């Protein structure tokens, strides 16, 4: 019996020491002279897999760029007011609106609106702090954004890196549902200001960009359904209405062999896609997106 | 009894190695981020998958929008060139594979017209990657 106890204690000690050796905790640190956030060391990471698949959501910056190029003047009124950041009570609404504010920051930055950028940065930081991702929007990052406030390109790089850091942090800390909500919020807001701008000035670039969102929509739905979030049911029901419309958007894809320039590590994707969307479909997409967006930004839950 | 203890220790070590692989994901993401240079804007996401062996594949679907240049960085382990990634179109044509270029850790794609792609990644079996975590980062710049 004594031998058995000693053996058990020895085995347990080996396991405990091995655990201590293999696992370590860490924190984010920032390099002084870099615009990148780096990790010192980490707790266990989590993969964002759904049945072996990962999902990609387009960056709101791409939509914001098209909106800017449309020539429609900057309009702060279409954005979600930064003053609302304090009204979001649950992590669910905070995460969605953190994504919304990220898209708004992209819109603001594209239009070089420094003053608004500062106030939206404050709103973003408030929500990030409340969600526990303040490390992604820490004082160093905020300072860098402020120092580059008049440089659109640098602003966009730094903001997108902060959002990526937030994404990584949430995944590392097993809060992938928050990561998914932030991405969904950003996509919905970028669809909103794209549609808003298109309604004002119906240029083909925006029309096609809106029509090309079918894969993004599929990804958003799969991301949201991959988590056990009863509070997302209403949102999902609304978003899934878009599927019925996008299923009828015509896409004609033609493969053309790509060409590669190895010296500059570049491949030219020459294939083409033609999308055909009619005004009724666009109108219906607008209606649904606007409704969803209103619910997200005006909730006090 | 001795055999049972040995089995317990062996299983525990396997679990701990698994946990260790997860922990290295963040270090790999950090190393990988250096390939997305400042001319490229991050898409705001970090794609990660734990691949337990070289037969497993991580897969995701994405849209590459037209008139845009994308940079895709793919990493696993503590050094470059451990991860093979392949990009296919919706009809399963292979658009690119870094395997043809010594598992290049990053590559640029100039996209003429919007295209929906599937990106697959797997650990090169011939490399001792030291980790089963696959990390992919995407950046873009407008033409």
Molecular structure report:
Chain A has 301 residues and is mostly helical. Chain A has one domain. Chain A contains 11 helices and 7 strands. Chain A has helices at 2-22, 60-69, 91-110, 114-131, 139-147, 152-172, 176-200, 204-211, 214-225, 233-246, 279-298, and strands at 28-30, 37-39, 53-55, 250-254, 259-261, 266-269, 272-276. A two-stranded antiparallel sheet of chain A has the order 1-2. Chain A has a two-stranded antiparallel ribbon with strand order 4-7. In chain A, strands 5-6 form a two-stranded antiparallel sheet. In chain A, a hairpin with a 6-residue loop joins strand 1 (28-30) and strand 2 (37-39). The N and C termini of chain A lie far apart (59 Å). Residues 10-48 of chain A have low confidence and may be disordered. Chain B has 143 residues and is an alpha+beta fold. Chain B has a single domain (2-142), classed as Jelly Rolls (Sandwich), CATH 2.60.120.380. Chain B has 1 helix and 9 strands, in the order αβββββββββ. Chain B has one helix spanning 2-33, and strands spanning 41-42, 47-50, 58-64, 68-75, 83-89, 94-97, 106-111, 115-123, 133-142. In chain B, the strands form 2 sheets. In chain B, strands 1, 2, 4, 7 and 9 form a 5-stranded antiparallel sheet that branches. In chain B, strand 5 and strand 6 (94-97) form a beta hairpin. The model of chain B has no long low-confidence stretch (mean pLDDT 86). Chains A and B meet through helix 1, strand 3, helix 2, helix 6 and helix 9 of A and helix 1, strand 1, strand 2, strand 3 and strand 7 of B.
């Amino acid at each position: 019996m004594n031998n058995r106890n000693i053996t058990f204690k020895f085995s347990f000690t080996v396991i405990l020491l091995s655990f201590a050796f293999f696992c370590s905790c860490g924190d984010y640190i920032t390099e002084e002279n870099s615009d990148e956030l780096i990790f010192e060391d980490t707790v266990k990471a989590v993969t964002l897999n759904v049945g072996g698949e990962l999902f990609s959501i387009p960056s709101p910056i791409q939509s914001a760029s098209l909106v800017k190029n449309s020539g429609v003047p900057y309009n702060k009124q279409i954005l979600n007011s930064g003053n609302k950041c304090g009204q979001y009570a649950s992590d669910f609404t905070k995460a969605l609106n953190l994504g919304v504010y990220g898209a708004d920051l992209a819109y603001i930055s594209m239009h070089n609106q420094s003053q608004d950028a500062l106030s939206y940065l404050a709103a973003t930081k408030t929500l990030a702090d409340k969600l526990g991702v303040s490390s992604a929007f820490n004082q160093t990052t905020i300072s860098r954004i402020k120092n580059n406030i008049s440089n659109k390109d640098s602003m966009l790089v730094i903001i997108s890196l902060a959002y990526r850091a937030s994404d990584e942090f949430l995944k590392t800390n097993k809060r992938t549902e928050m990561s998914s909500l932030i991405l969904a919020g950003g996509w919905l807001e970028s669809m909103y200001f794209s549609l808003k701008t298109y309604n004002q000035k119906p240029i083909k670039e925006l029309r096609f960009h809106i029509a090309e969102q079918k894969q993004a929509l599929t990804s958003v739905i799969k991301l949201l359904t991959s988590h056990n979030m009863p509070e997302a049911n209403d949102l999902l029901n609304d978003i899934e209405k878009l599927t019925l419309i996008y299923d009828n958007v015509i896409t004609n894809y033609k493969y053309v062999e790509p060409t590669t320039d190895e010296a500059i590590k570049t491949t030219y994707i020459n294939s083409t896609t033609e999308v055909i969307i009619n005004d009724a479909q666009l109108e219906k997409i607008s209606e649904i997106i606007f409704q969803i967006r209103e619910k997200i930004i005006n909730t006090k839950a | 009894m001795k055999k049972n203890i040995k089995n317990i220790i062996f299983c525990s070590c396997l679990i701990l190695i698994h946990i260790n692989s997860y922990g290295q994901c963040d270090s790999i993401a950090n190393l990988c981020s250096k390939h997305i240079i400042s001319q490229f804007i991050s898409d705001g996401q970090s794609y990660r998958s734990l691949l337990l062996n070289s037969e497993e594949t991580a897969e995701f679907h994405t849209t590459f929008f037209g008139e845009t240049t994308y940079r895709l960085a793919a990493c696993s382990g503590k050094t470059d060139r451990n991860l093979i990634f392949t990009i296919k179109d919706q009809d399963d044509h292979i658009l690119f594979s870094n395997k043809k270029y010594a598992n290049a850790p990053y590559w640029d794609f100039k996209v003429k017209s919007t295209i929906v792609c599937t990106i697959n990644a797997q650990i090169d079996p011939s490399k001792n990657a030291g980790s089963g975590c696959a990390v992919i980062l995407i950046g873009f710049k407008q033409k």
